[in-house]
Design brief:
The protein is globular. The chain has a single domain, classed as Aminopeptidase (3-Layer(aba) Sandwich). The termini are far apart. By secondary structure, the protein is of the alpha+beta class. A 7-stranded mixed β-sheet has the order 1-2-3-4-5-7-6. It binds acetyl coenzyme *A and zinc ion (ZN). Zinc ion binds next to strand 4 and strand 5. The site of acetyl coenzyme *A (ACO) has 23 residues, from strand 4, helix 3, strand 5 and helix 4.
Amino acid sequence: MDFKLRDFRPEDLERVIFINRACLPENYSRGFFLSLHKSYPDLFLVAERDGEVVGYIMCRIEGTIWRPRLKRGHVISIAVLPEHRRKGIATALLKEALSRMAERYGASECYLEVRVSNTPAIRLYEKLGFKKTDVVPRYYLDGEDAYIMTKVMAPQ
Ligand code: ACO
Ligand code: ZN
Protein backbone atom coordinates (compact mmCIF):
# COMPACT_ATOMS: atom_id res chain seq x y z
CA MET A 1 0.00 0.00 0.00
CA ASP A 2 1.78 3.11 -1.20
CA PHE A 3 -0.92 5.58 -0.24
CA LYS A 4 -1.88 7.28 2.96
CA LEU A 5 -5.09 8.71 4.31
CA ARG A 6 -5.41 12.00 6.13
CA ASP A 7 -8.06 14.54 7.02
CA PHE A 8 -9.07 17.02 4.31
CA ARG A 9 -7.65 20.52 4.75
CA PRO A 10 -9.13 23.65 3.15
CA GLU A 11 -6.01 23.99 0.96
CA ASP A 12 -7.01 20.66 -0.69
CA LEU A 13 -10.25 22.18 -1.97
CA GLU A 14 -9.21 22.91 -5.58
CA ARG A 15 -7.72 19.43 -5.95
CA VAL A 16 -10.80 17.73 -4.49
CA ILE A 17 -13.04 19.75 -6.82
CA PHE A 18 -10.84 18.67 -9.74
CA ILE A 19 -11.16 15.00 -8.72
CA ASN A 20 -14.91 15.31 -8.19
CA ARG A 21 -15.37 16.83 -11.68
CA ALA A 22 -13.08 14.30 -13.31
CA CYS A 23 -14.93 11.34 -11.77
CA LEU A 24 -18.60 12.22 -11.31
CA PRO A 25 -21.40 14.24 -12.93
CA GLU A 26 -22.65 15.19 -9.44
CA ASN A 27 -20.67 18.36 -8.69
CA TYR A 28 -20.98 20.80 -5.82
CA SER A 29 -20.21 24.41 -5.00
CA ARG A 30 -17.10 25.37 -3.02
CA GLY A 31 -19.39 26.42 -0.21
CA PHE A 32 -20.96 22.98 -0.02
CA PHE A 33 -17.60 21.21 0.33
CA LEU A 34 -16.46 23.70 2.96
CA SER A 35 -19.67 23.58 4.96
CA LEU A 36 -19.53 19.78 5.14
CA HIS A 37 -15.94 20.06 6.28
CA LYS A 38 -16.88 22.60 8.90
CA SER A 39 -19.67 20.42 10.29
CA TYR A 40 -17.92 17.01 10.09
CA PRO A 41 -14.17 17.67 9.70
CA ASP A 42 -13.19 14.10 10.55
CA LEU A 43 -15.59 12.60 7.99
CA PHE A 44 -13.92 14.34 5.05
CA LEU A 45 -10.80 12.38 4.17
CA VAL A 46 -8.32 12.38 1.32
CA ALA A 47 -5.90 9.74 0.02
CA GLU A 48 -2.40 10.79 -1.02
CA ARG A 49 0.09 9.04 -3.30
CA ASP A 50 3.54 10.55 -3.71
CA GLY A 51 2.37 13.66 -1.93
CA GLU A 52 -0.55 14.19 -4.29
CA VAL A 53 -4.24 13.90 -3.41
CA VAL A 54 -5.80 11.21 -5.64
CA GLY A 55 -9.10 10.47 -3.90
CA TYR A 56 -11.56 11.70 -1.30
CA ILE A 57 -14.61 10.78 0.71
CA MET A 58 -17.02 13.21 2.33
CA CYS A 59 -19.83 12.28 4.66
CA ARG A 60 -22.21 13.69 7.20
CA ILE A 61 -24.30 12.45 10.11
CA GLU A 62 -28.07 12.68 9.97
CA GLY A 63 -30.82 12.15 12.51
CA THR A 64 -34.17 10.57 11.84
CA ILE A 65 -37.45 12.17 12.94
CA TRP A 66 -39.24 8.89 13.58
CA ARG A 67 -36.38 7.32 15.56
CA PRO A 68 -34.71 10.25 17.33
CA ARG A 69 -31.92 8.19 18.88
CA LEU A 70 -30.89 6.68 15.57
CA LYS A 71 -27.94 8.42 13.95
CA ARG A 72 -27.08 7.59 10.38
CA GLY A 73 -23.94 8.25 8.45
CA HIS A 74 -24.47 9.44 4.87
CA VAL A 75 -21.70 9.09 2.31
CA ILE A 76 -22.22 12.16 0.14
CA SER A 77 -19.42 11.53 -2.35
CA ILE A 78 -16.41 9.27 -2.87
CA ALA A 79 -14.05 9.22 -5.84
CA VAL A 80 -10.57 8.06 -6.82
CA LEU A 81 -8.80 9.30 -9.98
CA PRO A 82 -8.90 6.64 -12.75
CA GLU A 83 -5.13 6.00 -12.85
CA HIS A 84 -5.14 5.19 -9.12
CA ARG A 85 -8.08 2.78 -9.01
CA ARG A 86 -8.13 -0.91 -7.98
CA LYS A 87 -5.45 -0.37 -5.36
CA GLY A 88 -7.77 -0.44 -2.38
CA ILE A 89 -7.88 3.34 -1.94
CA ALA A 90 -11.68 3.68 -1.91
CA THR A 91 -11.92 0.68 0.42
CA ALA A 92 -9.51 2.32 2.86
CA LEU A 93 -11.30 5.70 2.68
CA LEU A 94 -14.70 4.13 3.27
CA LYS A 95 -13.55 1.82 6.08
CA GLU A 96 -11.96 4.71 7.94
CA ALA A 97 -15.04 6.93 7.50
CA LEU A 98 -17.34 4.10 8.66
CA SER A 99 -15.35 3.44 11.80
CA ARG A 100 -15.26 7.15 12.66
CA MET A 101 -19.04 7.45 12.13
CA ALA A 102 -19.60 4.60 14.57
CA GLU A 103 -16.97 5.41 17.17
CA ARG A 104 -17.06 9.21 17.22
CA TYR A 105 -20.69 9.91 16.35
CA GLY A 106 -22.46 6.78 17.55
CA ALA A 107 -23.91 6.10 14.10
CA SER A 108 -25.60 2.73 13.94
CA GLU A 109 -26.11 2.73 10.17
CA CYS A 110 -24.59 4.26 7.08
CA TYR A 111 -26.34 4.83 3.76
CA LEU A 112 -25.66 6.31 0.35
CA GLU A 113 -27.20 6.69 -3.10
CA VAL A 114 -25.55 5.17 -6.15
CA ARG A 115 -26.50 5.01 -9.84
CA VAL A 116 -28.06 1.64 -10.67
CA SER A 117 -25.52 1.33 -13.54
CA ASN A 118 -22.46 2.02 -11.36
CA THR A 119 -21.25 -1.55 -10.98
CA PRO A 120 -17.74 -0.71 -9.68
CA ALA A 121 -19.13 1.37 -6.82
CA ILE A 122 -21.93 -1.12 -6.05
CA ARG A 123 -19.32 -3.93 -5.82
CA LEU A 124 -17.19 -1.83 -3.50
CA TYR A 125 -20.15 -1.09 -1.21
CA GLU A 126 -21.30 -4.73 -1.18
CA LYS A 127 -17.80 -5.84 -0.28
CA LEU A 128 -17.96 -3.57 2.76
CA GLY A 129 -21.34 -4.92 3.87
CA PHE A 130 -23.80 -2.48 2.28
CA LYS A 131 -27.06 -3.92 0.95
CA LYS A 132 -29.47 -2.44 -1.60
CA THR A 133 -32.38 -1.27 0.54
CA ASP A 134 -34.41 0.91 -1.85
CA VAL A 135 -34.63 2.32 -5.35
CA VAL A 136 -35.32 6.00 -6.01
CA PRO A 137 -36.73 6.42 -9.52
CA ARG A 138 -35.13 9.22 -11.58
CA TYR A 139 -33.00 10.36 -8.65
CA TYR A 140 -30.30 11.81 -10.91
CA LEU A 141 -30.65 14.87 -13.15
CA ASP A 142 -30.30 12.76 -16.31
CA GLY A 143 -33.17 10.52 -15.21
CA GLU A 144 -31.20 7.52 -13.95
CA ASP A 145 -32.50 5.66 -10.89
CA ALA A 146 -30.53 5.39 -7.64
CA TYR A 147 -30.16 2.47 -5.30
CA ILE A 148 -30.12 3.36 -1.66
CA MET A 149 -27.50 1.12 -0.09
CA THR A 150 -27.33 0.71 3.68
CA LYS A 151 -24.84 -0.83 6.05
CA VAL A 152 -26.02 -1.66 9.55
CA MET A 153 -23.15 -1.08 11.96
CA ALA A 154 -24.85 -1.69 15.30
CA PRO A 155 -28.25 -3.24 15.98
CA GLN A 156 -30.80 -0.75 17.35
N1 ACO B 1 -15.31 -3.28 -11.68
C1 ACO B 1 -15.76 -4.18 -10.79
N2 ACO B 1 -15.56 -4.09 -9.44
C2 ACO B 1 -14.86 -3.02 -9.02
C3 ACO B 1 -14.35 -2.03 -9.89
C4 ACO B 1 -14.59 -2.20 -11.29
N3 ACO B 1 -14.14 -1.31 -12.20
N4 ACO B 1 -13.71 -1.10 -9.16
C5 ACO B 1 -13.80 -1.48 -7.87
N5 ACO B 1 -14.50 -2.64 -7.78
C6 ACO B 1 -14.82 -3.40 -6.57
C7 ACO B 1 -13.93 -4.63 -6.51
O1 ACO B 1 -14.63 -5.61 -5.80
C8 ACO B 1 -12.76 -4.09 -5.71
O2 ACO B 1 -12.02 -5.10 -5.08
P1 ACO B 1 -10.83 -5.83 -5.94
O3 ACO B 1 -10.01 -4.77 -6.59
O4 ACO B 1 -10.10 -6.60 -4.88
O5 ACO B 1 -11.54 -6.69 -6.93
C9 ACO B 1 -13.48 -3.27 -4.67
O6 ACO B 1 -14.53 -2.62 -5.40
C10 ACO B 1 -12.61 -2.24 -3.98
O7 ACO B 1 -11.93 -1.46 -4.95
P2 ACO B 1 -10.97 -0.23 -4.55
O8 ACO B 1 -9.65 -0.43 -5.19
O9 ACO B 1 -11.00 -0.03 -3.07
O10 ACO B 1 -11.78 0.97 -5.24
P3 ACO B 1 -11.13 2.19 -6.07
O11 ACO B 1 -10.09 2.86 -5.24
O12 ACO B 1 -10.76 1.73 -7.41
O13 ACO B 1 -12.39 3.20 -6.17
C11 ACO B 1 -14.54 3.93 -6.96
C12 ACO B 1 -13.71 2.73 -6.48
C13 ACO B 1 -14.56 5.02 -5.89
C14 ACO B 1 -15.99 3.47 -7.21
C15 ACO B 1 -13.89 4.46 -8.26
O14 ACO B 1 -14.10 3.53 -9.29
C16 ACO B 1 -14.42 5.81 -8.71
O15 ACO B 1 -13.92 6.87 -8.31
N6 ACO B 1 -15.44 5.79 -9.59
C17 ACO B 1 -16.02 7.04 -10.13
C18 ACO B 1 -16.72 7.82 -9.04
C19 ACO B 1 -17.85 7.03 -8.43
O16 ACO B 1 -18.57 6.29 -9.09
N7 ACO B 1 -18.03 7.21 -7.10
C20 ACO B 1 -19.14 6.58 -6.35
C21 ACO B 1 -20.41 7.32 -6.64
S1 ACO B 1 -21.70 6.95 -5.43
C22 ACO B 1 -21.28 7.98 -4.08
O17 ACO B 1 -20.36 8.76 -4.17
C23 ACO B 1 -22.07 7.81 -2.81
ZN1 ZN C 1 -26.64 11.20 -0.75
